[in-house]
Amino acid sequence: MLMDLILSRENLIEALKRVEKNKGSHGIDGMSVKSLRRHLYENWDSLCNSLRAGTYKPNPVRRVEIPIVIST
Q1: DSSP code, position 58
Q2: Banded model confidence at residue 48, pLDDT cuts 50, 70, 90
Q3: Which ranges of the chain would DSSP assign to H, the alpha helix?
Q4: pTM listed for this prediction
Q5: What are phi and psi of 36, to 5 degrees?
Q6: Of 48, 46, 59, 65, which Cα lies nearest the Cα of 12?
Q7: DSSP 3-state of 20
Q8: pLDDT of residue 8
Q9: Which of 12, 45, 54, 56 could be bridged to 50 by S-S, CB 3.0 to 4.6 A?
């Protein structure tokens, strides 16, 4: 099942390493990349269960409007 591959420990660790390596910025929730590893460790079971059950409700994404410039 695809969801099992997505939620596998190996995939989680690989994704986390990429985020840490890229020094990604915090999301709309304000959680720093440094806090992410601990948060995932403490909440992974409940996150996986809610994703599998289809009950996970992500926070809204941070949006940035890019103005359109029209040259004449």
Answers
A1: P
A2: very high
A3: 2-6, 9-22, 33-53
A4: 0.64
A5: -60, -45
A6: 48
A7: helix
A8: 93
A9: 56
Task: In whole angstroms, give the CA distance from residue 36 to residue 6.
Answer: 18
Cβ(16)–Cβ(36) below 8 Å:
yes
**Residue 47, token pair as written in the block:** 């996150």
The residue with tokens 């440094």 is: 34
- CB 66: neighbour CB atoms within 10 A? 6
The letter for the amino acid at 25 is S
Is the model's pLDDT at 47 over the cut of 80? yes
Mean pLDDT on 48-71: 85
Distance CA 29, CA 14 (A): 22
